[in-house]
Design brief:
Number of domains: 1
Helix content: over 70%
Number of helices: 10
Shape: elongated
Structural class: mainly alpha
Strand order of the largest sheet: 1-2
Order of helices and strands: HEEHHHHHHHHH
Radius of gyration: 33 Å
Strand content: under 5%
Number of strands: 2
């Protein structure tokens, strides 16, 4: 008698967990279409990989990484300020090492104060050029860095197994929750069935 009432919750838990597990697997499997009479089984993601790649590329370019965002980073005061020490160091190196080697006469008349002056002037000139160069690079990115097309090509070239491994590594906890929530719901349905059996007995 006890097993009669225990069996529905146990079977419900197994069915709930199994159906959710199968549903998650069928997102990726089978990789190639399998004909079963009038029906064709094909994993949702392998079947729709081209559309997924196209939509993902458009969404990333529109919502996550636009050319405007990249240009804003390139021209941000914080980034430009980080270049400042490098610019002046390169200017100093040019004045100390390269400039005297341009011509023997230059080295003869080039004092240390003149080298320092050249280094400061060159550093300041380079510093003033950087914002214009950064803005120019940002303007050219749309033609030379098509985010949408790059993402689309990467996703289209990705094997279904790689996509499966990637998504399961990222969403392992969430997928596990889906599987066990199916078991819990199945158990609750089984308990309700046992309760009805007891009431109708």
């Amino acid at each position: 008698m006890n097993m009669t009432y225990l069996l529905p919750p146990l079977v419900g838990a197994l069915i709930g967990w199994g159906t959710n597990w199968l549903a998650l697997k069928m997102l990726f499997r089978p990789v190639r279409p399998v004909r079963l009479g009038l029906f064709t089984l094909h994993g949702v993601i392998p079947k729709r990989q081209d559309a997924l790649a196209r939509n993902l590329g458009e969404m990333i370019e529109r919502e996550l990484i636009s050319h405007h965002d990249i240009t804003a980073v390139l021209t941000s005061p914080e980034l430009l300020e980080s270049f400042r020490p490098v610019l002046y160091e390169e200017a100093r190196r040019f004045a100390e090492e390269r400039l005297p080697g341009l011509h023997p006469m230059v080295a003869m008349f080039l004092s240390q104060s003149m080298k320092d002056t050249v280094a400061d002037m060159l550093g300041a000139e380079l510093e003033s050029m950087i914002p214009r160069l950064a803005a120019g690079v940002g303007a050219k990115l749309e033609a030379h860095l098509p985010v949408r097309d790059l993402v689309r090509a990467k996703v289209e070239a990705m094997s279904p197994r790689t996509m499966e491994d990637m998504l399961f590594s990222i969403l392992a906890r969430e997928f596990g929750f889906i599987e066990w929530s199916g078991a819990v719901l199945g158990t609750l349905v089984g308990i309700a069935q046992s309760g009805l059996m007891i009431l109708l007995a």
